[in-house]
Write a structure and sequence with these properties.
Layout (H helix, E strand, L loop, with lengths): L4 E7 L3 H15 L4 E7 L6 H6 L7 E5 L6 H9 L6 E4 L11 H9 L5 E5 L6 E2 L4 H17 L14 E4 L15 H8 L5 E5 L1 E2 L11 H17 L2 H29 L12 H28 L8 H32 L4 H24 L3
Helix pairs in contact: 8-9, 9-10, 10-11
The protein binds guanosine-5'-diphosphate-alpha-D-mannose and manganese (II) ion.
Guanosine-5'-diphosphate-alpha-D-mannose (GDD) binds next to strand 1, strand 2 and helix 3.
Length: about 375
């Protein structure tokens, strides 16, 4: 199958990289049917002219956008101007070696992948000459994505800017990224079954400068938040909190019923054995609320990932139970830290404990109990 390949290359001030890039792409892809579309954000160094000067010799097109809107949005704009069955995205600065392109395309045309990612984090991949700080930032960014956007968990390098995909993946997708992470947007909003990761080494930039700065890192967090909103992950968190609230009612209500109507002694009635009986009532209430929370979360909060089969169901319930009990201990720990160590008012300290325990319960259960 020799499908048309459209390469989208976003550029901003990459004048010296354009000619070597196009030559190396040509060597890697010919005699395939391919086209290169540069989306330039009105570079000040003549990048667009450098690209235009090649269009007689190579299948190159150039689009210049006037008010700079950024890397990811350049790629989205590019999608409206190409007609390949397979689309690839790469940087212009040769940090993405064009020689990896055939491997990405092969994963799609021969190995049935819908998305093929040039990955730094599978065996054989890596980053050349990165400082420890940049490594930590990169890993941290991936961790945040895996934590907050569960659908990215099966991908080792969702931050890569080097990837290929079938046109159908983005056919009806509403893409609205900010910042640099166009792949993340496509993974969250596109439609696909199989993702392949092809190792590559992200090599050192030899000409020009990186445009990645603190602004982009802030944009990244905004982008994650926007994706959480658009894909329902934020609603999921709110549902989890509502379920938690219902658990308080079950917990308290059952204690009241048990001690007022079911023969259990209230804990303050020590003479009548309240310490044993009342505490037993409390333990039953706590455990019942953990179970009702589990059921509500399974069929409501995590309905899209619910566990059904008996074995898995009880394992998940046990997991949830353990995480929530540790959550309770965390609440006590945090409340004491604030009240006893920092001298904060106890009602505020307990609230802080509840907030931290809620986050703990949510993320641990999201990660372990309702795995994607
Ligand atoms: N059109 C357009 N508009 N292109 C841009 C813009 C912009 O505002 N900013 C950067 N680019 C282009 C650059 O010219 C280059 O071709 C590509 O986008 C990547 O920009 P770099 O500045 O070289 O980014 P980087 O090397 O720091 O980041 C790359 O690596 C990351 C992984 O660490 C990118 O590929 C990221 O997407 C990737 O996540
Ligand atoms: Mn770069």
């Amino acid at each position: 199958m020799n499908k048309t390949v459209s390469l989208i290359v976003p550029t901003y001030n990459e004048h010296d990289n354009i000619a070597p890039l196009v030559e190396r792409i040509h060597c890697a892809l010919s005699p395939r049917d391919y086209e290169i579309l540069f989306i330039d954000d009105d570079s000040t160094d003549g990048t667009a002219d450098a690209a235009s000067s090649l269009l007689e010799k190579y299948p190159v097109r150039v689009i210049v956008r006037k008010d700079k809107k950024g890397l990811a949005s350049a790629v989205v704009d590019g999608l409206n101007h190409i007609n390949g069955d397979v689309i690839a995205v790469m940087d212009a600065d040769l940090q993405h070696p064009p020689e990896v392109l055939p491997g990405l395309l092969k994963a799609i045309t021969e190995e049935d992948a819908d998305v093929a990612i040039g990955s730094r984090y599978v065996p054989g991949g890596g980053c050349q000459g990165w400082s420890l700080t940049r490594k930590i930032i990169s890993r941290g960014a991936i961790f945040i994505a895996h934590l907050l956007l569960p659908a990215t968990r099966k991908v080792k390098d969702p931050m890569s800017g080097f990837f290929a995909f079938r046109r159908n993946v983005v056919k009806d997708a509403r893409l609205n990224p900010s910042g640099f992470k166009i792949l993340l947007e496509i993974l969250m909003m596109g439609r696909f079954n199989r993702v392949a990761e092809v190792p590559f080494i992200f090599v050192t930039r030899e000409r020009g400068e990186s445009k990645l700065n603190a602004r982009q890192q802030l944009d990244y967090l905004k982008h994650i938040y926007s994706l959480m909103r658009r894909t329902g992950e934020l609603t999921r968190f709110i549902k989890f909190c509502l379920v938690g609230g219902s658990g308080v009612i079950v917990n308290y209500g059952l204690y009241w019923i048990l001690t007022r109507f079911a023969g259990f002694t209230p804990i303050d009635d020590m003479a009548a054995g309240g310490i044993t009986s009342g505490n037993l009532a409390m333990a039953i209430s706590i455990e019942t609320s953990i179970i009702t929370n589990f059921l509500l979360n399974n069929y409501f909060t995590f309905a899209d990932r619910k566990v059904r089969k008996a074995g898995a169901f009880f394992r998940a319930l046990l997991n949830f139970n353990l995480i929530c009990i540790i959550g309770g201990l965390i609440q006590i720990g945090v409340a004491n830290l604030f009240a006893v160590v920092f001298g904060v008012n106890d009602l505020i300290a307990v609230l802080a404990g509840i907030a931290v325990a809620t986050l703990w319960n949510y993320f641990l259960n999201n990660w372990l109990t309702w795995k994607h």
